[in-house]
Amino acid sequence: MTSAGPARDRLLQAVVEQLAGHGIADRSLRALAAATGTSHRMLIYHFGSREGLLAEVVGVVEAGQRETLAALTAEPGTGPREIVDRFWTTVSAGARRYGPLFYELSAHAMQGQEHARSLHETLVAPWIEPLGSVLERAGLPPAAARTRARLIVGAARGLLHDALVTGEFTEADAAMSDFTAIALPT
């Protein structure tokens, strides 16, 4: 990555949208450039390489979800069930567009691909602290709050995966509703 600024940000967002709609697979920088109306030289200038570009895509996708959670947890007086319900609604709506890209990048992290290496640090850990804090405010001891937060993240991602594979978002919504009723303090 060699530059920053609005042009780079717009180009990155165009790549994210392209990949969300068509996946990563083995798409070259030239193919991504053509699909986003730029040149492969501009992608190299802004991101250094295909792997650098994909690493930036990983960061954008994860940052957006964490910003949503941060906004929800910052609202005073909001209980854990309401936070998780609202977060689920927001994330599951976005997953219809960005979910396949998220899971494809997650698979790249599992395979140890360099551009997705940062997901080892960002895919789970940054979610535990804010959710854990909400659960602690609701009365759970710190260790139990962290464990429950991990359970919430895992359940939500599993249900999103299920909905994306089957197309049964209504069923996944109902399952998440049941899960929050069981797993979260009122």
Automatic annotation (TrEMBL):
GO terms for molecular function: DNA-binding transcription factor activity; transcription cis-regulatory region binding. It holds the Pfam family TetR_N. SUPFAM superfamilies: Homeodomain-like. InterPro entries: Homeodomain-like_sf (IPR009057), HTH-type_TetR-like_transc_reg (IPR050109), HTH_TetR (IPR001647). Keywords: DNA-binding, Transcription, Transcription regulation. Residues 5-65 form the HTH tetR-type domain. Residues 28-47 bind DNA. This is Bacterial regulatory protein. It comes from Pseudonocardia autotrophica.
